[in-house]
Amino acid sequence: MNKKIAIIILNWNGTEDTIECLNSIEKNHFKNYKIFLVDNGSSYESVKKLKKLKSKKIELVINKNNLGFAKGNNRVIKKVLDLGFDYFMILNNDVVVGEKFLSKLFDIMKRDDNVGVVSPIVFNYDNKNILMKTNSPGRFNLRKGGGEPWESDLHQIKLRKREFFVDYTSACCWLVRSSMVKKTGGFNERFFAYGEEIELAFRIKKAGYKFLINPAAKIWHKGAASSGRISGFKIYHSTRNMIWLERIHATRGEFLLFLMNLFFIKSPKNVIISLIQSNKFLVLISYFRGLIEGLFTRNNEFNNSKYYKIK
Fold first, then answer.
1. Secondary structure class of 92 (helix, strand, coil)
2. What is the C-alpha separation between 220 and 157, in angstroms, rounded?
3. Which CATH code for domain 2-221?
4. Which of 139, 216, 233, 235 is least surrounded by CB atoms within 10 angstroms?
5. Dist. CA 41–CA 247, nearest whole Å
6. Which of 131, 241, 255, 143 has its CA nearest to residue 197?
7. Given pLDDT bands bounded at 50, 70 and 90, which one contains residue 152?
8. Model's pTM, two decimal places?
9. 56, 26 in Cβ contact below 8 A?
């Protein structure tokens, strides 16, 4: 068995963040890893800087176009599976990792073959002791929109000393068992970005695997470094993909409750949020575009195993 961990990092015009991330990995106590650094259609200057990186532990993969988070990762997951890696990590380029985070995650994975994914706890890069709300662990709730925070009091999560089970975690850092992905498939490539980790988490649960968080493993996430905190891109994809996720996994009763929540709670809230943005019209149009495509795209255009098959 290959105990080396393959670390997959996607870069899209975020070279400075990527270099800081790579530097933090290099300081880790666990040294048995190989990094697959994937440039996802960045500018010429960004790619030029990445090509200057000199390390035997880094293999640079260059995509001519931005394939999105889902497809960009799937292509390299296929590569690392073919190379025989038993474990791989999905890691955002805009994080800084703790010195022991790799060994702490790997220790949990070795202990239980039923654990499919292990994640660290995620702190705010700008406020080092504050947990990232948007990266908090989650639980499934198909009546509201796929998922919701696992625990409302983030301080209680920070106080935990031992690992604990959740339904899913943010894909900003996943240590993944390769044998699991051979059964579940990878990320749904039609999602492109946002919500793909929750959709995959449903398939992981159906396959009988578990998610764990080890609070002894820590990372610090900048968050939204490539797409902006509120942008047309983000609100379009997150809205569309949330509806697609519901259409794939919800029962009829759950989907009806979700629609009520969507139209009477989520939509008014999102319209208000859109109107207070500086680019309000773009954000508003993007929201309604995501809403329409989520509801009216034909089912076979997003719900098909070919979209997450590792090929």
1. strand
2. 15
3. 3.90.550.10
4. 139
5. 31
6. 241
7. confident
8. 0.94
9. no
Q: Would you give the DSSP letter of residue 132?
A: P
Tokens of 82: 């073919």
Q: Backbone phi, then psi, for 119, in 5-degree steps?
A: -125, 160
Question: Amino acid letter at 290?
Answer: G
Distance (Å, whole) CA 305 – CA 80: 20
Strands (E), the chain: 2-11, 33-40, 58-63, 85-92, 95-97, 115-124, 138-140, 147-149, 164-166, 173-177, 210-221
For CATH 3.90.550.10, the residue range(s) in the chain are 2-221
Are 63 and 40 a contacting pair, CB within 8 Å?
A: yes
The two structure tokens encoding residue 56: 């035997």
Place of tokens 């530097």: 23
Which residue type sits at 251?
T
Token couple for 134: 């948007």
pLDDT per residue over 182-216, tens digit each?
Answer: 999 999 999 999 999 999 999 999 999 999 999 99
- Is-contact 7 25, C-beta < 8 A? yes
Closest Cα to residue 239, out of 295, 168, 170? 295
CA dist 271 and 80 (Å) reads 42
- Cβ contacts of 226 within 8 Å, gap of 6 or more: 12, 13, 14, 94
Pairing state between β 115-124 and 95-97: unpaired
Is there a contact between 108 and 212 (Cβ–Cβ < 8 Å)?
yes
Q: Give the separation between CA 98 and CA 280, rounded to whole angstroms.
A: 38
Among 196, 128, 140, smallest CA distance to 166 is for: 140
Return d(Cα 280, Cα 282) in angstroms, integer. Answer: 6
